[in-house]
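Example 3.2
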Amino acid sequence: MNEENKSIKGTKSYIVETLFIAVVMLLAVLLIILFGASTGYAIAVLGIVWLLMMRSKRKKGITDWQENTKRIIIFVLAAGLMNLFPFLSMAKTGGWRYPFERSYVEMRHTSTLPEWFPKELPDSAKNCRMDYTPSIMQGTGFFTAGFECSDEECAKWEEFGKERAKYIIPLEEYQTDESFDPAGYETELAVKTDTSGSHVEVGKMSAIWDGNESGAKIYVINTNLDLNHPHNEAVIVGNGRVQLFAE
């Protein structure tokens, strides 16, 4: 292959590489805007560094198509690994983000969210806070969203909790070591088994609770009573605030 053909091929691969990284950068921006995801920032920084490297190579007259192709492959692998590692975090606020974050959690989580999790927050929702930790190997991830809402909406969730809860725990009584002995807090829906040594993990459930704890209750919809590999579904209701939780 003569030098002219090499140069043409190198230029074409440079353009393809630039367009490819531009598309990935656009996806990074969407991750940042819609989810507030830290992964989006990391991919954006990687893309900027790569673009600077490409510009530097171009200025020096280095347009080898094989080198450009190698950079594309490395970029794809690096961006993919960034999305797999557990440092992902998402925006803590912004109720309008809830549908997007819920969909993202459903896509990444090892198990689907409970069917009772709403697709959207109620119209009266405000001061929304969310938190998410992805499942990592055998570790249990969780997703939670809390918001202030109208008295009517609170009453609806309170009634929902009373109808479906297996355990009802006053929020003020939870233990700070992130576990709670459920004995004595069962409802008629609880499985009749020996609960000695069993725990309901409530620390993470209440971690982003912004409301007054007095009078608020944790309605545990489902639990495996396992502290080491917990799987819990719950809703906390009280004092004009609702919080949804699943792990």
